[in-house]
Amino acid sequence: MAKLEELEELDISGNKLKAIPTTILNCRRMHTVIAHSNCIEVFPEVMQLPEVKCVDLSCNELSEITLPENLPPKLQELDLTGNPRLALDHKSLELLK
């Protein structure tokens, strides 16, 4: 992905991935990350993408998430459904209002 800096949308659903490559952070125009139905255990750093609007991490193996103090201003959708081990603390929920 290091050569794909202009990439705006990424759909890597259903690939049994355990992580999203950190090189995604080089894609400064990325606005949509769809990674449902994988085996992702650690919340990826996609919230550092300045243009991100939609993040779908549903149906993975997430157990906790760490959100930045300031969410991306353009973020409209964050789908975390179907992660049976995911527990959100009150601080994370407050950030999602």
Automatic annotation (TrEMBL):
It comes from Microtus ochrogaster. It holds the Pfam family LRR_1. One of its GO terms (cellular component) is cytoplasm. It comes from the Eukaryota. This is PH domain leucine-rich repeat protein phosphatase 1. Keywords: Leucine-rich repeat, Repeat.
